[in-house]
Design goal:
heterodimer; A: 322 residues; alpha/beta; 2-enoyl-CoA Hydratase, Chain A, domain 1; 14 helices; globular; B: 301 residues; two-stranded antiparallel ribbon; 10 helices
Chain lengths: 322, 301
C-alpha cells in the first residue's frame, strides 16, 4: 500500500509539473524511495520472482515507470549508425515521434518510435510521448522511404495516445491515424512492431501494424487508459485499478486473445532494473522475426499482414437473424 | 436466449411505421415549438418550424436514401460475445448491456448491412445505429463491415458507410481497437477492385471509427449537423484547460480544415449520392432494375 501511495504522490506531482511548476527534484526523491521499495518487493536475489504474478494495475504502473527505457534507449543500444530524419514535409517536425535509418543485425532498417521525455524540459519537447498528426505523417513518410529501398521496418511504441488537443483535431489526427493504419497494411517490407511501454489506443495502433507484434512483458496495450475507462464506464476515475483489470491490457492477456505474437521477457521488477537484459531479449526477438520475414517473398507480406488483422475478433454466430 | 428464436432482428423497411400509440405532437428541442410528429417524419426527421435535425435510427436513414422496395438486409447472423467477461461498476455485464440494447432497438447489432439501389445504382450499405451502445465498434461491427465490403466487391456495387458512433467499444477492450485495423485491411479490397467507397459522417462520428474506416472513403461527406473528431470535446478541454472554439468538431470545422469533401443537407443526401454514382457508373454492375429516370439521365450525359 505504501507502494501505491508513493506512486500516487509521484503521479500527482507529475500532473502538477505539467502545468509549468518544476517539481522534478521532489519527484526524483520519491522515485528513488519507490525504487528501493520495489527492489525489496520484486527481486529477492535468490529467487527471481515470476513477474507473471504481477497484478494488471502494477503492470500499468511499470509500463509508465519514468525510469523505463524509452524508444531512443533501444535505438541506441540495439542499432548502429542511427540517422534521424525530421519533419513530415507538410506541417512540421513532431519530437514525440523519432524516425530514421539505422543498421541492425548487419542490415539497414527503418526505425520509428514514440518518444517520451526523461525530465520536465524534455517532456515539454516530446509532449509526454503524445504525437500530433505531423508525427504520424513523419512516421509514414519514413516508413515509405524504407519500402522504396527494401529496408525492413522496426517500430517502438510507448505512448499514452495521440495528443488530445485543438491543433491535433484541426490537422485531422483521426485521418492521420487511419492513413497510417491503412498504408502500413500494404507496405512491401517486413514490419516488426514492439510495444515497449504504454500502447495507448489508436495512437499506438497507428504504428503497430506489423507482420509481427511483440510486447515487452510489462508493457500495456489498450483501447483506452484505465483512467479514461473508469471515468466513462465506472463514472469514477479513481477506479482505474479495477478498469485496468477489466480491460485485459497486459501482455499475457493479449497473447491469449491472439492480438500479439510474442512476449519479450523483462527482468524481475521491470525493464528499468536491468536495461541490458531487456535489450538483449529484444535484440534476439527482432533478429529471429526479421530473419523469418526476410525469407518470405516481399509481395506476400502485405496480403498476409492484412489477413492477420482481418481475422481478429470474437463474436457469436447465430442461426439466422430473421 | 429466447430472444433469438423470435422473428425479430431481420430488418424490414416496410415495418418502419411507428406505433399508433405514440404521442402525436413533439416539442422541438431547438426552437421549443410544438410540432406534429407525422410532419417531422415526412420531413426526414427535420423540424418543420426551424430546420433542426432530429436523430435518425439506422432504418430511418436507410429509408430516406434507397429506392423504394430495393433494400434487403444482408447482415451476417452474428451477435456480440463477451470475450473479456466485462462487468462495469453497476455490476452489469456486457452481455446484459447488449441484450438490453437489442430489446430497446429491435436490432441484433449496432450496424445494419444491406443491399439496395440508389437512383438505380447497386449499393452495399453499412449503417450504424447510435442507440445501440452508442453505435460503438466491437468485433461484430468490424466483421459486418468486412462482410459488406466483400459483398460490394462480389456484386460490383458502391460501398456506402454511414457512421453514427462514439468510437470503439470499450467493453471488448483491445479487440475493439483491432477492429480499426481489421476494417482498414478489408477496405483495401475496394481499392483493388476499383469500387467507390463513400463515407458519410453524421452526428457523431468520433474516435476509433473516425480514426479508421470512416476516414478512408474515396469521397467523404458530412451530413449537416455532424460532429466529427478523434478525441471528445470534454477530454480535450480537461487536457488543455481552455475554452474550445464554438464550432469545434462541427460539420463546418471539418469542412474548413479539409477533413470532408462536402457538407450535405439530410434531405439532399440521396441526390448527392446519385450524382456521385453517375460518375462511377462504368465501374459499377449494371442494374437491370435501374430506374427509367436514371437511364434517361445517363443517356443525356
Amino acid at each position: 500500500m505504501i507502494y501505491e501511495e508513493l506512486e500516487r504522490q509521484i503521479e500527482q506531482l507529475r500532473a502538477l509539473s505539467r502545468n509549468g511548476v518544476d517539481l522534478s527534484e521532489e519527484i526524483e526523491r520519491l522515485e528513488a524511495k519507490l525504487e528501493a521499495l520495489k527492489k525489496q518487493i520484486a527481486a529477492p536475489a535468490s529467487s527471481p520472482a515470476p513477474s507473471v504474478e504481477l497484478d494488471d494495475w502494477e503492470r500499468v504502473k511499470l509500463a509508465r515507470h519514468p525510469k523505463r527505457p524509452y524508444a531512443l534507449d533501444y535505438i541506441q543500444a540495439l542499432t548502429e549508425d542511427f540517422y534521424e530524419l525530421h519533419g513530415d514535409r507538410l506541417y512540421g517536425d513532431d519530437a514525440a515521434v523519432v524516425a530514421g535509418i539505422a543498421r541492425f543485425d548487419g542490415q539497414t532498417v527503418v526505425i520509428v518510435g514514440t518518444q517520451k521525455g526523461r525530465d520536465a524540459t524534455e517532456n515539454v519537447k516530446r509532449n509526454f510521448g503524445m504525437p500530433h498528426p505531423e508525427g504520424y505523417r513523419k512516421a509514414l513518410r519514413v516508413m515509405k522511404l524504407g519500402e522504396r529501398f527494401g529496408f525492413p521496418i522496426l517500430t517502438l511504441i510507448d505512448t499514452p495516445g495521440a495528443y488530445p488537443g485543438v491543433g491535433a483535431e484541426e490537422r485531422n489526427i483521426g485521418g492521420a491515424l487511419a492513413q497510417n493504419i491503412y498504408e502500413m497494411l500494404s507496405l512491401k517490407v517486413p514490419i516488426v512492431a514492439t510495444i515497449i511501454g504504454e500502447g495507448g489506443s489508436g495512437g499506438a495502433l497507428a504504428l503497430a501494424i506489423g507482420d509481427r507484434v511483440l510486447m515487452l512483458e510489462n508493457a500495456t496495450y489498450s483501447v483506452i487508459t484505465p483512467e479514461g475507462c473508469a471515468a466513462i464506464l465506472f463514472r469514477d476515475a479513481t477506479k482505474a485499478p479495477e478498469a485496468a483489470r477489466a480491460l485485459k491490457l497486459t501482455a499475457p492477456h493479449l497473447l491469449r486473445l491472439g492480438v500479439i505474437d510474442e512476449i519479450v521477457p523483462e527482468p524481475p521488477g521491470g525493464a528499468h532494473l536491468d536495461p541490458e537484459m531487456t535489450m538483449r531479449a529484444l535484440r534476439g526477438a527482432w533478429q529471429r522475426h526479421l530473419r523469418e520475414l526476410l525469407a518470405l517473398p516481399a509481395e506476400l507480406l502485405p496480403p498476409q499482414r492484412r489477413e492477420k488483422f482481418q481475422k481478429i475478433g470474437v463474436y457469436e454466430e447465430i442461426a439466422e437473424l430473421s | 436466449m429466447a430472444i433469438f428464436g423470435k422473428k425479430y432482428f431481420k430488418v424490414d423497411l416496410e415495418r418502419l411505421e411507428r406505433k399508433d400509440d405514440e404521442a402525436l405532437w413533439m416539442k422541438c428541442k431547438a426552437c421549443g415549438e410544438l410540432v406534429f410528429k407525422k410532419r417531422v417524419r415526412e420531413n426526414n426527421n427535420i423540424c418543420p418550424k426551424c430546420g433542426e435535425y432530429f436523430f435518425l435510427t439506422a432504418l430511418e436513414r436507410i429509408g430516406i436514401l434507397v429506392d423504394p422496395g430495393s433494400f434487403e438486409d444482408i447482415s451476417r447472423p452474428i451477435i456480440a460475445a463477451d470475450p473479456l467477461q466485462f462487468v462495469d461498476e453497476d455490476g452489469k455485464s456486457y452481455s446484459e448491456k447488449v441484450k438490453k440494447a437489442q430489446e430497446e432497438t429491435g436490432l441484433a447489432n449496432e450496424i445494419i448491412v444491406g443491399r439496395a439501389r440508389i437512383g438505380g445504382y447497386p449499393v452495399i450499405l453499412a449503417v450504424m445505429d447510435f442507440r445501440f451502445i452508442g453505435g460503438s465498434m466491437g468485433s461484430v461491427m468490424g466483421e459486418q463491415i468486412c462482410h459488406a465490403i466483400q459483398h460490394a466487391v462480389q456484386e460490383r456495387a458502391a460501398f456506402v458507410l454511414i457512421s453514427a458512433t462514439g468510437g470503439a467499444r470499450m467493453q471488448e477492450g483491445i479487440l475493439s481497437l483491432m477492429q480499426m485495423a481489421k476494417t482498414s485491411a478489408a477496405r483495401k479490397r475496394l481499392e483493388d477492385a476499383k469500387l467507390p467507397f463513400i463515407s458519410i459522417m453524421t452526428y457523431p462520428t468520433t474516435a476509433g471509427v473516425e480514426a479508421s474506416i470512416a476516414s478512408l472513403g474515396d469521397i467523404t461527406l458530412a451530413e449537416k449537423g455532424a460532429l466529427i473528431g478523434f478525441t471528445g470535446r470534454r477530454v480535450i478541454k480537461q487536457t488543455i484547460r481552455q475554452e474550445l472554439p464554438e464550432d469545434f468538431q462541427t460539420d463546418r470545422f471539418a469542412f474548413e480544415h479539409g477533413i470532408v469533401d462536402n457538407v450535405v443537407k439530410r434531405e439532399q443526401l440521396r441526390d448527392e449520392l446519385i450524382r456521385i454514382f453517375r460518375l462511377f457508373a462504368p465501374l459499377l454492375a449494371p442494374s437491370a432494375a435501374r430506374s427509367v429516370e436514371a437511364r434517361d439521365r445517363e443517356a443525356i450525359v
